[in-house]
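Lecture 7 notes. Example A: sequence first, then its structure tokens.
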Amino acid sequence: MFSYALLLIGVAAFVLNFPFGILRSRTRKYSLAWWSCIHLPILPLIFIRIIEGLTYKVIPYTLGISILGQLLGVRLGRWWFSS
């Protein structure tokens, strides 16, 4: 069954993580800034999940979408800043 709450959290996960992926491409690996770029977008997703009444079962879905947003953001950031 389709759920708009699931769509909302998926879009939010991607939109939040994409710019942080771009920022992460410009930071030194394993630094505090690099760590923050990975973990800061998780806090609003937890808040959205609680507000929408979604259970812990959507965490793998949001994690996958978040990783996709980070990876695409890093790729775009490397391409953008290399030229």
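Example B, a different protein, same format:
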Amino acid sequence: MTWSIFLARSAVKSMDRLAENERKRVASAILLLKENPKPPGKKVKPLKAIDGELLRLRVGNTRVIYEVVEKEIRVLGIVKRGDLERWLRQK
């Protein structure tokens, strides 16, 4: 089963600010989520600091914040590792 992926406007803007090679790595990691939005391993973890079902995907020093709703994967943000806490406070 494949899932639909939707990027929030802020995620698209963050993606545009990434370096070309990093943008490609993040894009391919997001596309891999279509097959399994909660893959086994250490790259995906639930965020416990926020109510709800937000997940964090680690791609190098970049974090992809997303949620799974029905048959959709909604990418809410793409942030650097050190900026994750600040991003969470804003939400």
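Note on Example B: The domain at 4-90 is CATH 3.30.2310.20 (YaeB-like fold). The helical segments are 9-17, 20-32, 84-90.
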